[in-house]
Amino acid sequence: MRYIDGGGNEVTGVRPTPSMEDYLETIYELIRSKGYARVSDIALALNLQPSSVTRMVQRLDEQNYVTYERYRGLVLTERGEAIGRAMRQRHETLATFLRLLGVHDEAVVQQDVEGIEHHVSRQTLERIERFVAFARANPAWMNQLHAAMQPGADGDAPGRAAPRPDGDGPAGAASGEAQAGPARAGPGP
């Protein structure tokens, strides 16, 4: 079976499950920060029982994502490291995106990223990466975005269309986009 991994590479083999991706990301981070990863470290990081972690690590070993020796720890294979790195990058990109949108509570950022990171297509992730790069390169634009996103910033009720930059009606009106509202049946009697 062929698939595209988290790093955009075409790979032959069994596609890792979201749970496997979480493990590979955690192992990658542990090795980067501590220089090694043991079952006990992974269990602590993922808040799981060591026996559950051992079963998953054995599965990762069988599928050539890690090399595992009981009681000695484990190392990522080239394939496992590539996926771990890609998952970490995806996680950071999504977290940065949420922070740029004004999500300031780090617990909320992490919870939301964990909820969406395995469901974002490569195409969407690439667009988010481009948005993040644009936002970082254009701080004045980001200041305008943050100001516009403040509750009541446009003087209107939440959920209403914001005025266009030229001040003439809701955004999208001049571009021919359909505006939400009651449908008209045509001229009256």
UniProtKB/TrEMBL annotation:
Spans annotated as Disordered: 149-189
Alphabetical list of InterPro entries matching this protein: DtxR_MntR_Metal-Reg, Fe_dep_repressor, Fe_dep_repressor_sf, HTH_DTXR, Iron_dep_repressor, WH-like_DNA-bd_sf, WH_DNA-bd_sf
SMART domains hit by this protein: HTH_DTXR
Quaternary structure, from the entry: Homodimer.
Organism: Thermaerobacter marianensis (strain ATCC 700841 / DSM 12885 / JCM 10246 / 7p75a)
Protein name: Manganese transport regulator
Annotated ranges, domain HTH dtxR-type: 17-77
Family classification: Belongs to the DtxR/MntR family.
UniProt keyword annotation of Repressor present: yes
NCBIfam families: PRK03902.1
PANTHER family named among the record's database cross-references: IRON (METAL) DEPENDENT REPRESSOR, DTXR FAMILY (PTHR33238), TRANSCRIPTIONAL REGULATOR MNTR (PTHR33238:SF11)
Comp. bias (Low complexity): 151-164, 180-189
GO molecular function terms noted in the UniProt entry: DNA binding; DNA-binding transcription factor activity; protein dimerization activity; transition metal ion binding
Keywords: Activator, Cytoplasm, DNA-binding, Manganese, Repressor, Transcription, Transcription regulation
Subcellular location: Cytoplasm
Annotated Gene Ontology cellular component terms: cytoplasm
